Amino acid sequence: MSQMEYRANFVTGIMMEAGYLFAKAMYVIVAYSAGKRIGGFSPDEILVFVGSYVAITGFYAGAFAMNLFQLSRLVQDGSFDLILVKPVNTQFYATFRRSDMGPFFFDTIAGIVMVAVGLVRSGIGIDLTLVLGWSFFASAGAAVGYALWIIPMTLVFRIVRADAIAGLADTFWDFNNVPMVVYGRVGQAIGVFVIPIFVITNFPALFALGRLPPVWFAWGIAAPFVFGWIASRLWRSALVHYASGGN
Amino acid sequence: MAEPGFAGKYAKCVGTGFRAALEYRVNFFISVAGAIAPVVIQSALWVVIYGDDPASSFFGFTFQQMVAYTVIAQLVSRLVRTGFEYDVNWDIKSGSLDRYLVKPIGYFGFRLFSFIGDKIVQTIFMGVLLVLAVWVLAAALGFAVSAGAVILFVLALALAFILNFLIFWCVALVGFWLTEIGYLFEAVRIVIIAASGGILPLAVFGPRASSFLSLLPFRFTIQFPTEILAGRIPPSSVLPSFALALFWALALAALGQAVWSRGIRRFAAVGS
Amino acid sequence: MSIIEVDRLCRDFSYYEKAEGLSGSFKNLFARKTMIKKAVSEVSFAIDEGETVGFLGPNGAGKTTTLKMLSGIMHPSSGEARVMGFVPWQRRKDFRRRISIVMGQRSQLWPDLPALESFDLNRAIYEIDRKEYRSTLDELVELFGIAEQLPVQVRRLSLGERMKMEIVAALLHRPRVLFLDEPTIGLDLISQGTIRDLLKTLKGRFGTTVMLTSHYLSDIEDLCGRIILINHGVVVYDGPLSGVNEALADRKTVRLVFSEELPEARLASLSGFRSRDKNSAVFDVERAGVRAFSRRVLDELPVIDLTIEDVPLEEGIARLYRGEAPRG
């Protein structure tokens, strides 16, 4: 379900993303200013990671973030009831109801530019395989990101002020602002297999840099299905407890 | 001209803000929990950057100082955070500002004292967290805080509340002219937080940019209180810094007053 | 078989007791008492296809909660229900395609778009065949007289016009069952009347089964052959509107006008005294005792006018709310 909003919203959406991009870019600034390799990656290679992160954030921010934040309000004022009675998959309808094309395009383009610049400066040739592979893992990562978001959002049916939950989960999204190697071996293992947040943006970057090992390669393909299924079940069972806000 | 029961009125606002804050404690806790992510991310980053040589200095910080800054700045940034600008914007947009104008209470005072009531509660919780944080930092990294620093920190914090309120009060007043500014608040907030040293210390921006930024009021909402507590402000700079902060508070208050009178006139003429 | 069958439906809500004042707020921080409210308690009824049933009750009575369970929005705490053979809270797609709900306080229309766009969205959502959609839409537009408002942004429409659009949006897929929750709330009297007229016409045209909640008696009087009265989550009365009075027909209201103002104590000494206003007084009298009462009053008091009335409908319903048991 996509609806284009006013031009004003389009512009302010982009300005917001520009603000966030500035905050994200600070980590790139630090990488370059520190002047040394971090976790075995040069600043240019780190740019590839951060660029992938920015690009996929575009999908999150543009396609469904607004709906997640609004979900709490919809539940509180009872408008969610009217969504529940429609003969469409409630989960997809509620999460993709409105999209913001502004942030989506802005982040996706900015991110891809960052990735390209990082690759070129690292001396890595950009061929069709790389583009397809990066796109594939980026899409798979976006799907995993979507599923991981649904899980905490199901709390919105039980807690009244759940917009704070969205705010909190939002900060965890930022873990991908730096390459996962920074978190050490244990951290990486948890973030790849248990709560696969690192899969979202690190896998496409690692693939583009030619450093994605086979086990992770396979997991990158399987993860979206596994977690998509988990998210869907949690959503369904949460609805059973829905008490319908408002009067 | 003293209004009868002036103190009582505003005290009530403090009380109401206080009670509302208790109700929304879940929100506050979650916003504080939001500090976890940046602290973890940055700490991991510093561990890797400072690597095997913790005594080395990046951006004028040793490893210990950098981690301490990260933790404290994140807590302070959440503590001084505002939210009333959305309410103000809503009051302007919907026209319900009328409601407050007919009441015998200044709107500015209403917002300010509700904010203070809110903050009193949050400061208590945050105070506990800060003590905990300093204790952990001391145990893990040998970070030390002097009694004098704590006293100055409290003063700096009080100023930080006032300054942050005034900054966002002025931002909110733009809503008299741009009704859709609500959507911009987030972008404005991010940039202001970055300029306050709330994401990374201002030194990261490079020597020239950071000296310029240090003159602006933003630094006094996050970076300054944090550095006071961490003992990074040399004694000779303490008084001049407070003076500059005070200057900005007065300047912003004056600006706010000027913008308010213009804005109110426009509001009365145009409606919502 | 009835199209809607409800059997001992229950719904409980838990909430936290909020203590007064500042110390109360502090206490709440650490330990909160959980209270249970029985919003719907063992409600049972059956509705046949084509009926229009009014669900009447004061605020918080449980009518909206019941409606939400029957439309599948909420799960009950216990009990069963079937609508068109479906269990509503299983929310089968086939079920959702055959029902519709209109809630007076909330809108399914996109506020910044013309209603027509929202209608088109519904066409896609409910998978309505284009030709059918066109003909239904035209029919409804003509019936409701909203042709001119179609291209206008919904948020610019008046409340009455918006409600018309809501109802049209709800009918585009020709649901077999329509739930209306307070459809006329907040509307001015004229709009209320218009909506009522439209619903009356619809009744005849589409043969939809309608369940309507309201706390305006006039909505119910106009539209519903049958009313279900609910209070504190319990069904207090289920039957024709005219039956309400019969249920209370054992009482009559006697109005007296006197030639002079009488002391209240004197009037209160007669049983059944209800109220007094200067020279007049109102009494509640058992039907069987009206004659005796009238004779006594005419004998003892300076009565110049005596009227014996049925308890008015509003009054009758109010009494049922208060729990005075209906006769029979």
Describe the structure in brief.
The complex is a heterotrimer of chains A (about 250), B (about 270) and C (about 325). Chain A is mainly α and about 250 residues long.
Considering the chains and any ligands shown, give keywords for the structure.
heterotrimer, A: 247 residues, mainly alpha, 10 helices, disordered N terminus, B: 272 residues, globular
Topology:
The complex is a heterotrimer of chains A (247), B (272) and C (328).
Chain A: H1 7-34, H2 43-77, H3 79-84, H4 90-96, H5 101-121, H6 128-153, H7 163-173, H8 184-194, H9 197-208, H10 214-240
Chain B: H1 6-23, H2 25-33, H3 36-50, H4 63-79, H5 84-94, H6 97-101, H7 107-141, H8 147-173, H9 185-195, H10 207-215, H11 223-229, H12 235-270
Helix pairs in contact in B: 1-7, 3-4, 4-7, 4-11, 5-8, 8-11, 8-12
Chain C: E1 4-16, H1 21-30, E2 34-47, E3 52-56, H2 63-70, E4 78-83, H3 93-98, E5 99-103, H4 115-125, H5 130-144, H6 159-171, E6 177-181, H7 189-206, E7 209-214, H8 217-223, E8 226-231, E9 234-240, H9 241-247, E10 251-258, H10 264-268, E11 273-277, E12 280-286, H11 290-300, E13 303-310, H12 313-322
Parallel strand pairs in C: 3-7, 3-8, 5-6, 6-7
Antiparallel strand pairs in C: 1-2, 1-4, 8-9, 10-12, 10-13, 11-12
Q: What's the number of extended β-strand segments of chain A? A: 0
Taken in chain order, the helices and strands of chain C follow as EHEEHEHEHHHEHEHEEHEHEEHEH
- For the record, the CATH class of the largest domain in chain C is Alpha Beta
Estimated structural class of chain C? alpha/beta
Spatial extent as radius of gyration of chain C: 25 Å
**Fraction in helix of chain C:** 25-40%
Instruction: Compute the CA-based radius of gyration of chain A.
Output: 19 Å
As residue ranges, the low-confidence spans of chain C are none
Number of helices of chain C: 12
